[in-house]
Write a structure and sequence with these properties.
Helix content: 55-70%
GO molecular function, one term: glycosyltransferase activity
Order of helices and strands: HEHEHEHEHEHEHHEHHHEHH
Membrane topology: Multi-pass membrane protein
Subcellular location: Membrane
Shape: elongated
CATH architecture of the domain at 8-212: Alpha-Beta Complex
Distance between the termini: 47 Å
Number of strands: 8
InterPro entries: Glyco_trans_2-like, Glycosyltransferase_2, Nucleotide-diphossugar_trans
Family: Belongs to the glycosyltransferase 2 family.
């Protein structure tokens, strides 16, 4: 899609991808008819998050036959939220939808989201999973615990069971781009904006191909980023733990003096050992929680970019078009200069 065509784009669909070569054919076959059926100008911004498989090559092949498809390839694997940031930064549509390539979130809901946003003047439309029976029991349990905790720490404005499948207006996208956050968690940042919002509910489907890109380690990391990035509750927890430890020590001190006065003391190391473990554990927990916040401050001070662009097919196409135009102009000027009065003088 040329730069001139993108200028009037109504809808951009951002798709972060990491090693999705198995899912790509099914994704394209299902997504393109949905978007073509809208009858509006659109683009699909596929962000290849440093894939180690053939994802980038397949995207180039698909783009040859699908002019609305645009690939933004990152130089290294930067993470799902960073890839989503790159897509939002480069999308040009008046509305921007985000969806994963695994088709667990149905593309058929995007027209419904767009219609709801335009009809009611909404800046945000969340895709809410009302049925997660296709997920494992462990996944449902951990996801439920995550949203329960976030709604209590961050606020009730965080919709339960709403991931990164959503539609944003251009105003909401620009507001997100102005935020200084280095480690972004969009499922919390977007509700924090407080823009008018609505919901579209759907049944979560099974992954079309490949394996999940959110194993337990990444889920834990997301939870830590969510808690430390949006709440000071862990620091207050450290204070409460210290208070509990202090009063526990006072009780043990009183107990020790009472036993000593009644002459019932028995030499031993168990009570001392347990007491030291208790106090030491509390201190380590507090230091660890403090370290999480110091690490976020350290990252913010560094101000390193969340991603680096290795390739943008839209930018490359625009550069080639400009080069061809310049060449044609130069050829025209050269032909014209050979027919002027100076040409006869040279003869």
């Amino acid at each position: 899609m040329s730069a001139a065509a993108r200028a009037g784009t109504l809808l951009s669909v951002v798709v972060p991808m990491y090693n999705e070569e198995d899912a790509l054919p099914s994704f394209a076959a299902r997504m393109r008819p949905v978007l073509d059926g809208l009858g509006v100008r659109y683009e699909v911004v596929a962000v290849d998050d440093g894939s180690a498989d053939k994802t980038a090559a397949l995207l180039r092949d698909l783009a040859a036959d699908w002019p609305e498809l645009r690939m933004v390839r990152l130089r290294r694997n930067s993470g799902h939220q960073a890839a989503l940031t790159a897509g939002l930064d480069h999308a040009v549509g008046d509305y921007v939808a985000s969806i994963d390539a695994d088709l667990q979130d149905p593309p058929e809901k995007i027209p419904e989201m767009l219609e709801l946003a335009r009809a009611e003047g909404l800046d945000i439309v969340y895709g809410v999973r009302e049925d997660r029976s296709t997920d494992t029991g462990f996944k449902r349990w951990t996801a439920g615990g995550y949203y329960w905790l976030m709604r209590r720490l961050v606020g009730r404005q965080v919709p339960a069971n709403a991931g990164d499948f959503r539609l944003l207006s251009r105003e909401a996208v620009e507001a997100l781009k102005e935020l200084p956050d280095q480690q972004r968690v969009y499922r919390l940042l977007v509700p924090w904006l407080g823009f008018p919002s609505g919901e579209v509910r759907y049944v979560r489907e099974e992954r079309v191909a490949g394996s999940t890109k959110y194993p337990l380690a990444k889920m834990v990391r997301l939870a830590l980023d969510s808690v430390t990035g949006f709440s000071a509750a862990p620091l207050r927890l450290a204070t409460w733990l210290g208070t509990v430890a202090f009063f526990t020590c006072l009780l043990l001190l009183g107990f020790s003096l009472t036993v000593y006065l009644f002459g019932a003391t028995v030499p031993g190391w168990t009570s001392l050992f347990v007491g030291l473990l208790f106090i030491g554990g509390i201190q380590l927990i507090c230091v660890g929680l403090l370290g999480e916040y110091v690490a976020r401050i350290y990252t913010a001070v560094q101000r390193r970019p969340a991603y680096f662009i290795a390739e943008d097919t839209a930018r490359d196409t625009a550069r080639d078009t400009a080069r061809d135009t310049a060449g044609e102009t130069g050829a025209g000027l050269g032909a014209g200069s050979g027919s002027g009065p100076g040409a006869g003088l040279g003869g």
